[in-house]
Amino acid sequence: MKKELTFVLNYALNKGFQIHPDAFKILENVDIGKLEKIIKEIVREKTKQKLFQINQDDLETYLGIKEDPTLQGEVKILSDPTTKITTGEGVKGYNALFSSRFNKLKKIISDRPESRKLKSIASIKNTKSEDEMYVCGLVTTKNIERKITKLVLEDPSGSFEGIIFDDELQKTVGTLLTDQFVMVRVNLGKNSGFIIKDIILPDIPDHVFNKSETEVYAVFLSDLHIGSKYFMEEEFMEFVSWLSSPDPVARKIRFVLICGDIVDGVGIYPNQDKELISLTIEKQLKKTEMVIDQIPKNVKVIIMPGNHDPGRRALPQPAIPKKHNSSLWEMENVIMVGNPAVVSLNGVKVMMFHGQSIDDIVKTTPGLSYDKPTKVMKHLLKARHLSPIYGSQTPIAPEIEDLLVIENVPDIFHVGHVHRAQLDMYKGVLLINSGSWQKQTPFQVSVGMTPNPGIAIMVNLKTFQVFHQNYNSNSNNILQS
Ligand code: D5M
Ligand code: FE
Ligand code: ZN
Fold first, then answer.
1. Which domains does the chain have, with CATH numbers?
2. Residue 358 CA: which ligand 1 atom is closest?
3. How close is the Cα of 472 to the center of ligand 2, in Å?
4. For residue range 364-386, what is the model confidence (pLDDT) as tens digits?
5. Beta strands 412-415 and 348-353, pairing class
6. From ligand 1's centre to the CA of 176, what distance in Å?
7. Which of 268, 360, 378, 469 could cross-link to 392 by cystine, CB 3.0-4.6 Å?
8. Which pTM does this prediction carry?
9. What would the DSSP string read from start to end of 231-288?
10. CA of 315, nearest ligand number
11. Which residues form the pocket of ligand 1, taking CB atoms under 6 Å from any ligand atom?
């Protein structure tokens, strides 16, 4: 304990006072230079009233940080895959998944005026019409060779192949993701092949974001990796104790969102045990519980899993199962959701997705990289899908309903996974990659991945002003925007 704190405690005790543990918590975070004055004044006042206990209320009144009861902290779960998971069997399952993806995205694109001319692939197969036509489907192949680019799409009626000559459109084809939904404008060419004249993505319209009525803040966090040797425990605990401090922003925080990889897990990558401090899931979750318990109880904590957390690996992921640690589930202010999830915080809609698909997208798409995750997030919004590529590194379960389609436009899109905190805006949607609280791992060193861990991002849900705090002592470690 700091000597200044010991001094004021002894002072109060000698005057016959008791200090409530909640009051003590506040005292621990008070500027030490002010401690003595605060205690002496409270002791003098309360002695007059003949009340010999110093409680939280006394300190909050004195410090002017009394909780504002008008600040709302309302969470609604708008979408969570946990109870919706109904995985199909084998080929039948995948057919159902892709048919659900196609139907949902066709409905989304139907809002565009061009869609009135939309035809099924089968119906244009033998056409002799010279008019322009529109078809849509999922990208099955893109073939970019010398000057000729071919694109193959599939809809429930069949398969369509088109050729692209235009340079700009050829570049667009390069950025399309396999299994992504697109609409194309086509003409019949001279030798009865189809020529693609335009490629239209479902995309999002310009968005006017919803606001909280009161000036409440939400904190955006991801990739704690509790249990790993590289979890920045000291820095993270410093941030957590700031949440109880008299800082005016801290006093207005009502939500903490954790976007996956809360624990490091067990057996996630080869020889992981050499990099773990806690060797079992149970121990890692126990530690998590201790950490989360330090967050003030008037703050709702939303926990979503990532690829390191227990449950299942394939997307969509259910919430971390109860069987490992019931107390985390039972904490009054903790809400466990699956990946992806959409939550409403005082009416502000946040879409949370861990971001597994970024790995596949970065590897196959020119112009996208790990150090600019919000660029990939824009790509996902344009595709209106969180993980289009099937059959690569990111496992996707053959759900009867495709729960990874972005059906509604969120106000905030929150992602993690790549350990690079970055902010951006796209058509009125705030994009947040909340980075990590894990130092660079030997794997990341080996592949030249430089994380910027230890940054807490906070958003004022009334004004959408963004703040951040950097707990990393390395001065090169900065938030990108
Ligand atoms: O992933 C953090 C980042 O590091 C994410 O972009 C994937 C990448 N990563 C981590 N381990 C591997 C292996 N073994 N192969 C390829 N890419 C990897 P995280 O989910 O925190 O481990
Ligand atoms: Fe991670
Ligand atoms: Zn991850």
1. 3-62 (no CATH), 75-84+206-470 (3.60.21.50), 112-200 (2.40.50.140)
2. 6
3. 17
4. 999 999 999 999 999 999 999 99
5. parallel
6. 23
7. 360
8. 0.90
9. B-HHHHHHHHHHTTSS-TTGGGEEEEEEES--B--SSSSTTGGGGBSS-SHHHHHHHH
10. 3
11. 223, 261, 269, 307-308, 359, 370, 417-419, 443, 449
